[in-house]
Amino acid sequence: MSLSEFALIERFFTGLGAERGDVTLGCGDDAALVEVGGTTLALAVDTMIEDVHFPADAPPASIGHKLLAVNLSDLAAMGAEPAWALLALTLPAVDENWLTAMRGGLDALARTHGLALIGGDTTRGERLTASLFVGGPVDNPLRRDGARPGDVLWVSGWPGEAAAGLACWQAGERGDDVAPLIERLHRPTPRIALGRALRGLATAAVDVSDGLLADAAHLCERSGVAATVRGADVPLSPALAARGGAALDYALSGGDDYELLFTAPADAGEAVRRRAVDAGVAVTPIGAITAGAAAVTVVGADGAPLVAGRTGYRHFDGNGK
Ligand code: ADP
Ligand code: MG
Known about the structure:
alpha+beta, CATH 3.30.1330.10, 13 strands, 32% helix, globular, disordered C terminus, binds adenosine-5'-diphosphate, binds magnesium ion
């Protein structure tokens, strides 16, 4: 029997170890929440492996940027403020030029968000692998489990660009028309300001790492609700729309965007838009939360269900990288 990534986590790691009163939220959200001296801290870790999470020939400064960005994205999904990071790095060889560039990408994004690297571990191994642990304080955190029937489902920015960018990168396309897509693949923008702005307003949030539909399903599962996504309302950037018929498929199922997918009460639309403007990012209502069992349905303009061509990427399922 092949065990999916999520079944594996559930079976082997959920509930492992002592039960502690200072853990507000354990496995299953974008970050864990713990209480320390009256402060809530959000804690998360993500790993990037060469040729799994980034192409081996990606620019090293972008690898440093992306390593931090994907982790900050999990803090963004909780509404947390980035503060600290620990870096565990496994290198096949020491290449000083590569390390200098990678450090530069990591350092620039860390400074932008006021985050300090405070420790880590360095080892030699066959494949370049980098794990970053991040943490930071949060008041009134966002979680995946607060969506309620009647809420509106929103997405930030332009989903699908990163997956289209990966297809272009792998096909050797490097033209100006695909540059925005490749930029989004290599240098995603963590939506920290938006996540912080949505505290107290959004009822649930998740960041889009596996794909819009897959991550919507994670949010629904945790909240015990279902969702309907209106395919025609999913925003397509000009660069993605130019890819033609595959554009919506990328937007619904492509991973690696690090946009925020969130829910808010139906009467909170104006407030959501105002806070998003303050956070400097576009947000679009794309669907509705309904009562039911964790299913996400995509409907066309006529309200009839559409079938998405691909599902979100999962490790260990053999359906992707
Ligand atoms: P994300 O995509 O937001 O980083 P993941 O899909 O990697 O989240 O993980 C889903 C949930 O499972 C998270 O809450 C994460 O902390 C937890 N998790 C993943 N792997 C493990 C593990 N080996 N042990 C304990 N918890 C894990
Ligand atoms: Mg996440």
